[in-house]
Structure formats: C-alpha cells, structure tokens
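Prompt: For my understanding, could you write out one protein's sequence and backbone structure tokens?
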Amino acid sequence: MPTSIDITPSPRILSVLGDIDFKVWQCLCEIIDNSIDSFNSETFNNSVLSPNGLSFGYKPEIQIKLPSTSWSRLNANNSLVIKDNAEGMTLESLEKSLKAGWSGNDPITKLGLFGMGFNIATARLGKKTEVITSTKGSKEFIKVTIDFNELESSGHFNAPIEFIPKKADEMQKHGTEVRITKLKTEHLKPLFQRKKQREILGKIYGRILLQKEIRLEYDSQKCKPFEHCVWNENRTGKSSSGPVPAVIPINILLDEKKFCTTCWNWLENSESNCSVCGEDSNIQKRERRIKGWVGIQRYFHADHYGIDLIRNGRVIKELDKSFFYWQDPETDEMELEYPRDGFQSLGRIVGQLEIDFVRVTHQKDTFVTTSKDWRDVRRAIRGDGPMQPKIAKSRGFAQNDKPIAQLFSAFRSAKAGVANLIPARSNGQAMLTDPYIDELIENFKEGLTDYQSDERWWKLVNQAHIEPIMPIDPEDPFEPPVEPVEPDEPDEPGVPDEPDNETKPDHNLSQRYSLDLFGGINITVIAEKCFSGDHKNGFTVKLGGPILTFTYWPLSSVFKEKLLQPADFLINELAYHFHTIAQNEVSEIPITAVELKLREKYFPDLHPTLSELQRKVAVFQDDLIHHFKSKISSFKINISIINNIELAEIRKKLSQNENFDAQQIEQALEKGEFMSYASFNVLKALTIEHPQLVFDGDFFSKKWTSKEMDTEMKNDLDELQSFLNDIVWFNENSSAPTGRLWTARTIRLSGSIQILEKWRV
C-alpha cells in the first residue's frame, strides 16, 4: 500500500491564477515591487551606488511600455513591457522568482511577499511571459519563456531557457525586462487610461520615488510622485489642552518582539521556537514602530481626506477613513465621528503612516484589520475612546489625546480664520469651496514652484478679520446669503477705464520638462495667458535658473499671422534654455534636434509624426465602429451603398472569422452586424448616407434634430465628407514615397483630424 500520493498541481494552475481578480494597476505593481526590491538590494547598492548617493552617472529607472495601438485594436500579438535597470538576476535567483509559491523575500524590508504576485499578475495580463535579465558584468542575458498554453498541453512545469551572449557594448548592462504577450484584451482597457494610471502609480510609490530617486515612466511619461497639500508644520490650532501643530510627526515604538521570518509569526519574548512552524534559526528581534505624520490639508474635500497606510515606502491603502470611526466596545458598532459638526461631509485630516509590522492581504490592497497589530495601531493613532470630549465623558472614557483626536479637537470649529486655518472670502466669511481654491489645488498638483508653500492660502485665512457685509446665515455657516448688487458708480469724465489685467494660468504648458539628452537637468515652466493689452511678439519669457516664466497673449495678431501656437514658441525657448544650461556637455547637439525631442515627448499633437497620425486615424476608425455597433439595433442600414468588392470582402471575413454560413452572413449584413469587418471606405459611405448616426450628440457634439437638411447641415456634411476623404487617402498612401504633394496632403489630414477631434463629444 502506498504511504503517500503526489499532489503536484497541474501546470494549468498557473493559467488559473490569471482568473484572480487583480486590477491592472495591481498587476503592474506586483512587477514594479520586484524592481524596487532589486534596487534596494545590498549587493546592488554596493556595486552601483556610492555611500553618499548615486555614482557613475547611474539613474534608477523603471519603464512601462504600452502596446503601440488603441485598446479597441489591441490583440494577442501586441506586447506589454515592464523593464528596469536594477540589479538583475542570476539563473538561481531567476528560477526561484518564477516558481509559484516560493518566496525568499525578507518580509521585513522587501515589497514582494508571497511568491505568487508575479505569477498572478502576468497570468492576468497575458498568456505568455518572457523574462530577460542580466547582472552587471555578466557575459550573457538569461531569457525564460513561460507560455501557459504550452505548459498546460505538455503537462509539465519546465519553462525553456536561453542564454544570449552580450555584445561588447552591453557588458555593463544590468536589469530585468518582463515582456507579456498573448494579451488578455478584455482586462486591459484601463492600461490606456494613461493619466489615471500615472496618478495611481505616483500615489502608490510617491515616497519611494522621492527617497530613492527612482524614475518611473508610464508610456514614456514620468509618474509624478504624489505629495499631500498640507499646511506648514509651523501653523497651529488650539485645543483645550493647548496649541496643536497643523502637522503632527509620528514615531511611536509600541514594543520589540521576536519575529519568525519563515512563517511571519510574532512570538512572545519567552518563546525560543516558533509556535507555528517550530523554526528556531530564523527568529529575529523586530520593532513594532509606527512612523509618519498626520495633519490638516489646506482644503476641504468630499472624498480626498484620510490616512495613507504604507508598508516599506509603498502605499497599501490610500486615504483610509477607518480612523474616523469609533468602535463601541460593548456592541462593536462603528460610529462616524469625522467629518461632522457642520462641515457638510467635507474632510481635511490626512496623513501617512508606515506600519511595516502589520500583515497585508495577498492582493496587497489593504492591511489585515483583524490582527492585534492593527488594533494596536488604531489605539496609538486615534485612541480607544470617542474623540468628542462630551461623548467620551458620558461613556466613561478619559479625554482622547491621541494624534488624530488632537487634530479633531483643534481644527473642529467652522469659523474662518487663522485659529482654525479656514480660508475666508474677501468679506471675511468662510470659504470651503471656490474656483480660486480649485486653481490653487491644481497648481500645487502640477508642481508649480510658487504654489508649493502655503503662503497664498495663509493670505486667504487672514481675510477672516474683515467684517462681513451681511450677517452669516446660521443654517449655513459656510455660504453667505446672496447679496444685493449695488449699481455701478458712473465714471468720472475724462478718466480712462483701468485696463482689465486678467492673467490666467495655462495648465497644459505649465510643468517640469526634462530630456534624456541632458541627464538630470529639469526646467520648470510657469505658463500664463494674458487677455489684456497686447505684446508685439505675442509672448514674453523670464528666466530664473531652472524656472522659465512664459506669458503669452492668445489674441495677439502674431499667432494668427504666423499660423503658430504658443507651444511652438515655448518649445523654441525651452530648447535654447536647455542648451544654455548644459553648455559644454552637449555642445554638439543642434538646437533643432532638442526642439524635435521636446515635440515628440511633450507635444505629440502639435505637429503629429507619421506614426502619431496613423494612431489617431486608427482610434477614430475604432470609435466609429463602436458607435455604429451601439446604434445599429435601432437603425436600418442601407447596404446597397456598399460596393460589391467591399461586400465580398466582408462576406469572406464573416465566413472565416465567425464560421457563418451563407444565410447567417446575409442576416448579419441585413442587421448591420458586420461593423468589425468594415473597411474605412465602408464606414465613410455609411456615415455620409446616414449622417444622423454621427450627428447625434453622442459621437459628434452637434445634433441634427430636423428631418429636412438646412444650409448649415449641408455645409457640415460637406466638410465631414472632405475630412473622411483625407483619411481614405491617408490609409491608401501613408506608406507611399514622400514628396512635396504627399507632405502637403498629410498636413491637410492633420488639420482634418484636429477638427474631427474638436467636433467629438
């Protein structure tokens, strides 16, 4: 009789891992975590980094490269790439890293934990993963291919490995590249929400990116490290127990206990062996320490408040609001304590807490809140008792003096002014929301230098001493009642009107610019548009070291006469300024080459490249197809306008790709269920024949409501036909030999695309 059975799982287990509901950003983070752990490794730091910082001109980078297509055209042949220039892996470490369930990570200092994250993430994104890695000084790249379909069909876990010799100039290269193909397109739409994904990653890794000086790029653009917009630590509020700083630093040592690094179990100090795994050699003394800060945000918000919970520098839970609830020890019911007291459900208490000793879930999207460690964190940061003194007293608790309770007590009042750090309007009344507040927030997020300190907010707070024109409505202490409008006094005769010196920030142009050509040089642009007066050049430039202030007059005749945009002039000034700062380092690089790099990186839409035009055309075509699909059930398509050659091609594709028989093909044609296989020529014909399908307020913003076509509608339709003809020409000639006529027509196409984009909803 056998004494054991083999429970080695089927290789299909790796593919099944992809069914675990990881969001796209979670998948990316699992791979990024591995890169950051490699940057943090002692071996790497000793070989690449000097004791005082980065050496040898080395700059840590992690790049996420998206497929060069739109989501709607994404297919299994496209690839998603995540690469770094970190330590790289030896064959032994690579094998361990790819083995499902194996984890050699130190659970105290590393981000990677469970040995499953990489497999889950890659399986969720695609069915084939290639890992190419190399250490510094090694003579070869190691490549491992994991094809889930092949593993499953073969019945074993053996992934093929290749050793690729390095070229002479590659000997010092190091790092790891993860290339994912056979993409699961149904999961990947969020990938193409580029701005949103950059914001997510900037929030999750903000502290690490700043502290480690790691550059994280998403689709060739830098993920900006997120920072909270809080009051300076020298600002204070007042509670019954005295002044409370607007930002309270946290460094609380709970205790020091024994910890098993094998099974991650905490031991009592009297124990010598782990009570869970019996291990005695991997027992370490470890601090249970809470580090970070809690403080007051400069603005109120309905959602953006709460505490970021962090493990080893990485945000695990963003804006956690559980600290604002009091749990009744008798009933276990949770009672919301903040925000309340007339703040209209708006909050402003924020913070960041490093709680490395608290265990996280396998998805690394929250901490395990049922553990004693978590309860100890809550007790230290918000206290056991209610934060409201009267309620605490009535329920038998002493006054709560924990950090969040201090902030709650000191900044609880709804009255505007310096005592509560609440901005005021020009009449002295409290101002929680306002377009100017929104502008301050946006400029802070954009990283504009003049908006990082709280000085502008402090001026608003100090307006509270102004006597209100009318009494505050007790029902709404934040919004003043509508004031009667006083008639304007007549101007004095002979006195000219004061010019309207209205200047507004241009958030599209205002940002920090950098190019690989210039290493670590960054230039911060503060762009403003002025609507009063004029300037002979249409713009002015002021330089102050790495800061360039660019003011332009959008109504200036310069822009109309030159047929150029403000960005064209800014690019020229930036290129010259980069060149001036760099001087000897890049004297051989022409300024025009710098301009070209700036256009490619920051202004791809200004004068699109051929590849960018191809992408825009593809996106427009995809959008048109999807729109027709959504409308087709309620609209009768006139198939007769499609020529026989196009119809034959559609029939062929329906037969080959859908396995339709002749009857099913004709039904699909009749019902319009063929759009996925329609060429742009077909889409153009259908659009011109049925313009109501696109001029419906959903695809194009303009909506035709009348049955009869008026002059304006005819003109719109004629324009649309011209734009579509340009696309047809481009599809047929984009790979044709270039010439003056070809270039002229391509430029015209660029204009057509721009107008179509303006027409879109």
